[in-house]
Specification:
α1 runs parallel beside α3, α3 packs across α4 and α10 runs parallel beside α11. The protein has 3 domains: about 80 residues, Helicase, Ruva Protein, domain 3, CATH 1.10.8; about 90 residues, Beta Barrel (OB fold (Dihydrolipoamide Acetyltransferase, E2P)), CATH 2.40.50; about 260 residues, 4-Layer Sandwich (Purple Acid Phosphatase, chain A, domain 2). Helices cover about 30% and strands about 20% of the residues. The longest helix has 20 residues. A hairpin with a 2-residue loop joins β13 and β14. It is α/β, with parallel strands linked by helices and about 500 residues long.
């Protein structure tokens, strides 16, 4: 990409627009050096006049702007990786759709009323999910359950406001915004008791109960919101998505050599025939947060840093991202190490910090969490900061098996079920962490341990890391497994773990 074209793309991104792949090709075809700036100005003028304001610049809009300027057809500028017929994905049109992005929707003041609205919205969204299920549709209320005589049965949706454990008994204080009750869960029903052990405060549940004395109810069944079993979307062609996260540029133990091998593989320079076959069909590269190591994220982080300047970290990251072949779509969300607000949901990383990354190539920058559709396959992208909260509070989960924790998030239909743990959550007008739409692929990172699995038709992938063990992780007893790259076949939905730890 020429320097003029880099500046042109940077101008479009700075104006708040993303570029479709075909729009970029059209810009290359229509814009000479002397006409490129007027063409970009006309594109931005036309895009800004459209209501509602579009998120993406389309090829059609670029063509209309070129016609307005009477540029006509100009000789195509040769661009590396486009139109040569050398690799399968190069001449294949991108099919990327942004389904949800929290950027621009956030703005809590932290006032008391914000918290009330936030939890009320969570309860309403979860109640609507239970209404979609046949077995939980006929729900009553807590008041109905309390009004029944001794041993009377109740069925209701509620939020857990307090949880206490005494020996083999668990007491849940639950609320449905009309009434409150205490629910006893004993170990006489092992299945219900095991479910209750993993339940946290602020989770929304469907309970089937038996009336005891006073305001005490006895749980006979606990139902999580769950995702339904479903048939995932699939691409019509064999194309691949590469799932990356936790690169941590700037760390002393950033595995730069291994990551450069990934870049070499994407460019078709590394790997045997089978690996190169897959690389030729990679159309999407998803970066799930923590592109850089950041500053002051955890105690004494400075001893783990090779680059103690956040701006320089992003400049170095830009050089790496810029090496990803231009025909591949790059989608970026933030993590807890990136230069953006720490509270979930997070907006896209601002240009003030990540500008060099956005200038290095075309990047679709979104918030955390976000939802995208790639060739008809629905992805839920979440960095995964709350995974450690669930691991630390719910029994039976293991740091080395992150897929099981991610499965529980799908079962709970929430990415951070408990408020007030180590993961900060902003009390927004809506709870954007509710999993309202069932994803075909659920990607997270954060714990630096890769893995994959399938739950009720959803492919679950933790995308691991590209950072060795830090001194902080040693003190915490955390053992990462970096250097493994998950690659998803969007036609078969098979996940392949590629090992780049050595030559």
């Amino acid at each position: 990409m020429s320097e003029e074209m880099r500046r042109a793309v940077g101008t479009i991104l700075e104006a708040g627009f993303q570029m479709e792949s075909e729009a970029f090709k059209t810009l290359v075809e229509k814009g000479r050096d002397d006409s490129l700036k007027p063409l970009v100005d006309e594109v931005l003028k036309m895009a800004s006049s459209v209501q509602p304001r579009p998120l993406f610049i389309s090829a059609d809009l670029v063509l209309k702007a070129a016609e307005q300027l009477d540029l006509g057809t100009v000789p195509a500028v040769p661009v590396e990786g486009l139109g040569h017929g050398r690799r399968f994905a190069e001449d294949r049109e991108s099919k990327l759709e942004v389904v949800f992005d929290p950027t621009g929707k956030l703005g809590t003041t932290g006032a008391f009323d914000d918290f009330l609205r936030y939890f009320r919205n969570r309860f309403e969204k979860m109640s609507a999910l239970f209404q979609q299920r046949i077995d939980t549709r006929s729900a009553g209320t807590i008041s109905d359950a309390l009004a029944g005589g001794t041993n009377g049965r109740g069925r209701f949706v509620c939020m857990v406001v307090e949880k206490r454990e005494k020996g083999n008994r668990i007491f849940l204080t639950v609320d449905d915004y009309d009434d409150e009750a205490t629910v006893l869960v004993g170990d006489s029903n092992p299945s219900v008791w095991q479910t209750a052990r993993r339940v946290s405060r602020d989770q929304v549940l469907f309970l089937e109960t038996r009336k005891s004395s006073g305001k005490l109810l006895v749980a006979e069944n606990i139902v999580l919101p769950e995702i339904p079993d479903h048939r995932p979307g699939r691409a019509t062609d064999e194309v691949y998505a590469v799932l990356v996260s936790d690169v941590h540029v700037g760390s002393k133990v950033f595995m730069e050599d291994a990551f450069r091998r990934v870049l070499g593989w994407l460019k078709g320079e590394v790997g045997g025939p089978d690996q190169r076959y897959v690389a030729d069909r990679v159309k999407y590269v998803l970066i799930g947060g923590d592109l850089v190591d950041g500053i002051g994220v955890y105690p004494r982080q400075e001893v783990d840093l090779k680059v103690p300047d956040i701006y320089e970290q992003y400049r170095l990251a830009a050089k790496l991202v810029g090496e990803i072949p231009e025909h591949m779509e790059v989608i970026l969300i933030p993590g807890n190490h990136d230069a953006v607000r720490q509270a979930l949901p997070q907006p896209a990383i601002p240009k003030e910090f990540a500008g060099p990354v956005y200038d290095s190539r075309r990047v679709v920058s979104l918030g955390d969490p976000s939802e995208v559709r790639l060739d008809g396959v629905d992805f839920l992208l979440f960095h995964g900061t709350s995974l450690m909260d669930i691991l630390s509070s719910a029994p039976g989960f293991d740091y080395q098996r992150p897929v099981e924790v991610m499965e529980y998030q799908l079962r709970a239909r929430h990415l951070a079920p408990e408020y007030g743990k180590s993961t900060p959550i902003g009390p927004e007008l809506e709870d954007w962490l509710v999993v309202e739409h069932v994803p075909d692929v659920f990607q997270s990172g954060h714990v630096h341990v890769p893995g994959s699995g399938v739950y009720r038709g959803t492919t679950i992938v933790n995308s691991g890391a590209w950072q060795g063990q830090t001194d902080y992780q040693k003190r915490m007893g955390l053992v990462p497994q970096p250097g493994l790259l998950p690659v998803v076949n969007l036609q078969s939905m098979q996940v392949r773990m590629m090992d780049f730890r050595s030559e």
